[in-house]
Design goal:
Length: 266
């Protein structure tokens, strides 16, 4: 791509501009050193932080993620993993704002149960309304329901993050048709969140037209997280370029030879 094409490919969320469309979580690694190595290899600029599980200053006596991933070098995305009510989620993100000196960009997720980790969309919508009114830039994890996705956009969320499949399942994209409806109807970025298991899943999400992909377990639980992070970076880039290029149409029972048949030299 030339310089102008690169400029047009910059990724914008809530007025902030990014080069990478891959967002990476910071949990489930063996230590913060591995976390940093994997994230650096992925090229991700936005990193999610589960405020209830990852130390960013809550415990002064333990190592802090901030020492390995300085906020001046990465955009932190505090999230509400482990929250099951709107009130709990709002309190958690207000704490994150204090810990990160007024940080506004957050990821909201309100879970329905501890077994499936499926989103409770009613509580999610209630929390989103409060957080937007409170001045947060809210990126929100939700189901792949196009109606709910639109409602979350309408209350002011700056990015909608539908699941591909259940959190940590690695099952990939189970309902591409719903994702396409969401992408078609929304004007804010649509970022697949949850369910990606390998590079091809991420590439498919981008080929569908998603603006980005967020993942954690797919990298952290790989046998070689550093190598998987590198693969994910390439898959995001390849999927985006394939989407922009526009794939050929599928033709059932209409074979077309790669070489033209007219003008064949006998």
């Amino acid at each position: 791509m030339d310089k102008n094409e690169n400029q047009s490919e910059l990724f914008d969320i809530a007025g902030q501009t990014f080069n990478s469309r891959l967002l990476v979580g910071t949990g489930k690694y063996k230590d913060f050193k591995e976390t940093k190595s994997a994230i650096d290899e992925s090229g991700a600029e936005i990193v999610t932080v589960a405020i209830r599980r990852v130390n960013i200053g809550q415990d002064k006596n333990q190592p802090s993620l901030i020492d390995y991933l300085p906020p001046k070098d990465y955009t932190y995305l505090p999230n509400t993993a482990g929250c099951y009510t709107a009130d709990d989620s709002v309190r958690t993100l207000r704490l994150a704002r204090e810990l990160l000196d007024g940080h506004k960009l957050v990821k909201l997720e309100v879970l329905g149960d501890s077994e499936t980790l499926y989103p409770n969309v009613v509580e999610t919508l209630n929390a989103a309304k409060i957080l937007v009114k409170d001045g947060f830039d809210v990126m929100v994890y939700t189901s792949d329901d196009p109606i709910m996705a639109k409602q979350l956009e309408d209350v002011g969320c700056c990015a909608i993050m539908p699941l591909a499949s259940l959190i940590g399942s690695g099952m990939g994209i189970l309902n591409p048709w719903n994702l396409e409806i969401i992408i078609d109807r929304l004007s804010v970025p649509v970022i697949v969140d949850a369910g990606v298991g390998t590079a091809s899943d991420a590439s498919i999400a981008m080929e569908l037209g998603c603006d980005g992909v967020l993942m954690n377990t797919a990298i952290a639980a790989a046998k070689n997280p550093i190598l998987m992070a590198r693969a994910m970076k390439k898959s995001i880039e390849a999927g985006r370029e394939a989407f922009l290029a526009g794939r050929m149409s599928k033709k059932l029972y209409q074979a077309s030879p790669s070489s033209p048949t007219k003008g064949i030299i006998e």
